[in-house]
Amino acid sequence: MKKNILTSVILLGLLIGNCSDFAFGKSVKLSRKQKKEASYIDIAKTGFDSQQYDVAIEYYTKAIDINPQNAESYAKRGNAKFLLGKYKEAVKDYTKALELDPTRENLYYNRGIAKANLKAYKEVLEDYTKEIELNPANINAYLNRGTTKVLLKQYDSAIADFTKVIELDNKNELAYYNRGIAKRQKSDYKGAIDDYSKLLAFAPENIDAINNRGVAKFYLKDYEGAIADYTKVISLDPSFSKVYYNRGIAKLSLKKYEDAILDFTKEIENNPQNDSAYYERAVAEEKLDHFVSAIDDYTKAIELNPNNAQYYAERGALISKSDGDLKKAEQDLNTAIKMDDKDVEMYLTRAIIYCKLGFYLAAVDDLNIVIKMNPKYTQAYDLRSYAIKSVMSEQKK
């Protein structure tokens, strides 16, 4: 079963204000409409600054009704809508502002963030690119474009954007962190570790970087190094998401089963809904021949996640191994294979159970499937020969 190691990409969702506030020069004599517009804008700004975004929207709308050619009012109303989670409406306002003033900095950037929240990632890239064309020094635009490229699995291009950020700001934590993410996604674990280590040189308590460096070390099979990083995370924040689980996986890989069980138990205390922690604790318990406890943990994992074929398969295999209820073991394997009919080990396990039950023809059928899936699986040939001989022996009786 593939280990469910925790790691994540940080999305930078920083809204940038749009230019200066609307104002008239002192020497300009204002018309009645202009005074009214300015009054509405002033009320809208006050509402925005006090986080009363509905009020801001209401009065920017009144200002727009008076002067529909003021790009600033659309831009600021878009910001208020964004902060209320009204992303589609925010995009419309940013678009209108850009129609009126296509060279205004930060508008493409803010529209890109709104579109990112709508998961329109290809359009997001276009907006960040346009923003960079207008403002080549906009670090946040490079960061967000790079992060969006990671989501689109454009890892090389994402790395180039994060590298550009580092050129502009050589102590930018997010650039090193997200470049490490992109490298890890390319299986460049050494490169990822290098980026996290560079980050930690000037930000030694960046917990996400320490955790993700541990993840990269784990994938390089540097389990001791991974454990050291996870232990550091725990010292900084014992409630950090899944860190005990991750450390338990590393200890399990070193065959430190008792220590792994302690970590999985701690993870379960912190997160009782983590089905993977029950599953991995069961694996460790099984290695120590604690079969009853292991079966209980497999059962709990199934209760929490009844759609995981591996959980049923492992419980069924252990029930069979420990001479338990073979019909229950068969039922578990039937369920597992129904969910995942491409796993060769499940068919082999069920064939073993069939042999124990004396269902030799059924075992032969499963073993034929195993051999078809993996013609070099010698154990399957041996077991099939045994099953065929058992069938022939029964026929002679």
Strand content: under 5%
Distance between the termini: 43 Å
Cα gyration radius (Å)? 30 Å
The helix-and-strand class reads mainly alpha
The CATH topology annotation of the domain at 1-8 and 33-136 reads as: Serine Threonine Protein Phosphatase 5, Tetratricopeptide repeat
State the CATH architecture of the domain at 1-8 and 33-136: Alpha Horseshoe
* Strand segment count: 0
Tell me what the structure shows.
The chain has 397 residues and is mainly alpha-helical. Among the domains are: 112 residues, Alpha Horseshoe (Serine Threonine Protein Phosphatase 5, Tetratricopeptide repeat); 66 residues, Tetratricopeptide repeat domain (Serine Threonine Protein Phosphatase 5, Tetratricopeptide repeat), CATH 1.25.40. Helix content is 73%, strand content 0%. The protein has 21 helices and no strands. The longest helix has 19 residues. The two termini are 43 Å apart.
